[in-house]
Amino acid sequence: MTFSFPKLLLPLLFLGLLPGPAAMAQKKKPAPTTASPADIERRVADLLAQMTLEEKVGQLNQYSGREVTGPANDRKNTLLTSIRNGQVGSMLNVKGVHDTREIQAEALKSRLKIPLLFSLDVIHGYQTTFPIPLAEAASWDLDAIRLGAHVAAREAAASGIHWTFAPMVDVGRDPRWGRVMEGAGEDTYLSAQIARARVLGFQGEKLGGTDAVMACAKHFAAYGAATAGRDYNAVDLSPQQLWETYLPPFKAAADAGVATFMNSFNTLNGIPATSNAYLQRDILKGQWQYPGFVVSDWGSIKELVTWGYAADKADAAKKAVTAGSDMDMEGDVYSQSLAQLVKDGRVKIDLVDDAVRRILRKKFELGLFDDAYRFSDEKREKQVLNDPQNRAAARQMAQKSLVLLKNENATLPLGNQLRKIALIGPIAKSRRDLDGSWTVNADTARITSLYDGLRQRAGKATELLYAKGCTVSGDSRAGFDQAVATAKNADVIVLAVGETWDMTGEAKSRTDIHLPGVQEELFKALKATGKPVVVVVFGGRPLIFDAIAEQADAILYAWWPGSEGGLALADVLYGDYNPAGKLPITFPRNVGQIPIAYNQQYNTGRPLLKPGENRYRSAYIDAPNTPRYAFGYGLSYTAFTYSDLKISRPQLKAGESVQVSFTLTNTGKVAGEEVAQLYLRDPVASLVRPLRELKDFRKISLKPGESKTVTFTIDKDKLAFYNSTLEWVAEPGKFNLMIGSASDDIRLEGAVELQ
Ligand code: GLC
Fold first, then answer.
1. For labelling alongside 175, which of 83, 200, 225, 383 has CA 20 to 30 A away?
2. Is residue 497 within 8 Å of residue 519, measured between CB atoms?
3. CATH 3.40.50.1700 assigned to 402-588
4. Beta bridge pairs of residue 464
5. 3-class DSSP state for residue 366?
6. Is ligand 1 within 6 A of the CB of residue 508?
7. Contact, 699 vs 580, CB < 8 A?
8. What Å distances lie between residue 717 and 191, 622, 698, 714, 728, CA to CA?
């Protein structure tokens, strides 16, 4: 029996606010552990007092478990011996009730029976894959994003996982950097809002429920600013940029109670993040009073030697633990050096005790000392992993993440009367590519391709023709003729192009972000048939596709939409869902324009006021300054007008706020959602400010002809910035306010004055 739960109520259902069919079938909601913080502190202290130095160091080691499950081998035997000797605190990449129970049993043979933490990169879903995080950001729907994290946590926690290495909260402004796919895009405000939503989604209101996992804010910090967009590279930043652009999403995650942080591979102004006491001691554990623990990134402690910051592993261990790195992921540096460093008096035992305390605290909060197997329940695993509501939520999020970039002459939505649709392209029938990178337990058989989705949605009367046309990479045009012949037979062409799932992600920096291979040539050949061409682009980052952008009749940016992507795409292509996605990252015309994030644009002393004017302007002689598609851009099948701007008062003093309201109207024929964006600019300040900065947004749903009043509140905090002495100040004077449908589509303008 398939149960179609009212879609709008899905979020309430998952967050346990409404009983649904699965809930009825499910035992009552797994109760978080009841231990009080004081009780946990006492138990941590008692346990710490019993631990030897070797056992303490043991808690600071994390190893990957790929070799630990499965047939016996040397690596497995070595690891199991270490686990039994209490020399391992956590394992990653061990998943599933069976394997986690098996390995946990080994840990409980140790002298103090300290359970392991099982961790995994559950970045955008565990078995049910959601759109990649950058795609979810395009939804601007914080409830849906939180729900997605909650569903991922439910599935992972039902499979023995205690801890996910997510959310990645690095602001990503450079599309050459492959890891932009894992974050929430180029804007700090949007990234901070999404960081909070994801932490709450993964962890719930309080750790300890077996439908939630520990989250991990990563990569601390400023990893997205890697020089030249090249992964693992150095980062040089002004203090203002660090505090204003890169730290706020981490602070939002910390304020939301994120259980752990992960540091990053990059240096910050010459000091590797993993041994950067300014970041981890002064800011995170000092100013922010962060109570959780910091795990290094994979081998990043060992890499202090490679960077040329540590003389050897012992020096690396000393520098990392002193700087606040609590757990060593796959570095084997702490395990080999830390105990001796303490014995030699080169590292204070207090530093080790603090790290161990932070880790044990989380194990108590998860209830693992009461029942080390409480997350490894076969029955729950089977029930949760096959809950149809998980896929319904993934399909909803995929619908919300799609961005309509172009729709000439209302080419979309496809009409039910269409007799023949030609689905062409190398990704048309692909399933794996729709899942994108960073999928850890995906079941490819469960993924619906665009072909599957269209086949299911198109009526019996519609014939769905297919031709691959070309491969994603490579220069063979051998398939063009057949593709063109197929297209000539159809009423409309749907062309599915983009990147394969492994072309964006970690260690996938690119100097050229054009659509790979001969896909654009295939497009031109199809366009030459004179048939309307709808292009669906799949990818993990902004891509460049000039011919398509200029000549296609319609363009839908699908990102990597996850396991329900094919169904969601059909929902949008047929208009069953009216697209409302908005770009969370700027799409450049060419790589030469980078950095081109919208909030990296300044007036300069010689602004280019109109193309082609006197050349002594801040401009290129070979390209426009403007991007192909701007931050915040995305179309709908309907239209919206913005009117009646009202500002509650023209001035405000410190401590006061101003209400800015306007009327949003759906002037089209179908219901739709609009993301109205509020931008501010400080035109005169002690440091020159960007032309515009996103300070708030609202996603509003409107029926045809319906109007709603939308209100933003502006207070001093929205006017503030870090000045030359790093004080967070709002300076008196006028502030321009802009309300629009995109960062380059401002519909209403006004001003307020701070006195
Ligand atoms: C990787 C990534 C990090 C991930 C970790 C464990 O190198 O940088 O994001 O969580 O290793 O897989």
1. 200
2. yes
3. yes
4. 421
5. coil
6. no
7. yes
8. 17, 40, 18, 8, 9
| Rounded Cα–Cα distance for residues 433 and 543 (Å) | 16
Max alpha carbon distance in the chain (Å)?
81
Phi, psi of 467 (to 5 degrees): -150, 140
pLDDT digits (tens, 9 = 90+) for 32-44: 666 899 999 999 9
For residue 223 and ligand 1, the question of a CB distance below 6 A is answered with: no
Rounded mean pLDDT of 65-87? 88
State the CATH class of domain 640-754: mainly beta
Which residue's CA lies nearest to atom 10 of ligand 1?
165
Strands 733-742 and 640-647: unpaired
Q: Letter for the amino acid at 618?
A: S
Active site residue 644: no
Which tokens go with 314?
């012992």
**Nearest CA, atom 8, ligand 1:** 297
C-alpha span between 169 and 252 (Å, rounded): 10
Report the side by side order of strands in the sheet with 117-120: 163-164, 117-120, 90-92, 61-64, 328-329
Q: Do domains 402-588 and 640-754 have the same CATH topology?
A: no
Question: Is residue 20's pLDDT more than 80?
Answer: no
| DSSP labels, 54-111 | HHHHHHTEEEE-TTTSSS--HHHHHHHHHHHTT--SEEES--SHHHHHHHHHHHTTST
Measured in Å, residue 363 CA sits from the centre of ligand 1 at 21
Of 297, 315, 326, 682, catalytic: 297
Extents of the domains making up the chain: 7-381, 402-588, 640-754
Fold that domain 7-381 belongs to in CATH: TIM Barrel (3.20.20)
Distance 676 CA to ligand 1 centre (A): 35
Check if 231 has its Cβ closer than 6 Å to any atom of ligand 1: no
